[in-house]
Amino acid sequence: MNLFSLFIGALLVNNIIFAKFMGICPFLGVSKKINTAIGMGVAVTFVITLSSIITWLLQNFVLNKLGLGYLQTIAFILVIAALVQFVEMFLKKSSPSLYEALGVYLPLITTNCAVLGVALLNIKDNYNLVETIVNSLGSSLSFLLAIVLFAGIRERLALADIPESLQGFPIALITAGLMSIAFLGFSGLAI
């Protein structure tokens, strides 16, 4: 498979939020402001990409060699949890305001199914290391793209005249649904 096609496919066609519906919790919870959405998107991008590389190496050089493939999910969750702790400590030291803004959602990256899902899909699809990096980067940037676009729309919706019954979470869900339909248009993209 062409690496460019793999990247564009992961970024737009198989968008992790709008096509695979993984990572919805932080997508809805941390998308009220663009700045926090960018921070969450960058943190998730870092964790998905690095965890996919480490889990690919772990799967191919440890678990498969020792016949311990049945420990895959547990081992992958441990790797992801360790990376999230690293990101949390880094943000607490380097950007306390972003750390406070992300709140409970930062440690919840550990349970973000998008992170584990991408790592497992890379193994299931038998990608080599380079394809794993490209697919992971495309998938994680698709999360960043989705959450930043959604945050921009939600900021504008906060200023719009919306019927009272649709204000807040209901209009956010309707918007997410419409964005998902819009991204469905990329499924016809021939690359």
Question: What do these coordinates show?
Answer:
This protein has 191 residues and is mostly helical. Helices cover 70% and strands 0% of the residues. It is built from eight helices and no strands.
> How many beta-strand segments?
0
Unreliable spans are none
How many helical elements?
A: 8
Which of globular, elongated, flat, extended, rod-shaped describes the shape? Answer: globular
Radius of gyration: 17 Å
| First-to-last CA distance | 11 Å
Beta fraction: under 5%
In short, what is this structure?
The chain is built from 8 helices and no strands. It is mainly alpha-helical and 191 residues long. Helix 3 runs antiparallel to helix 4.
Write the layout of secondary structure elements.
Layout: H1 3-13, H2 24-29, H3 34-63, H4 72-94, H5 96-102, H6 113-124, H7 129-157, H8 169-184
Helix pairs in contact: 1-7, 3-4, 3-6, 3-7, 4-5, 4-6, 6-7, 7-8
List keywords for this structure.
single chain; 191 residues; mainly alpha; 8 helices; globular
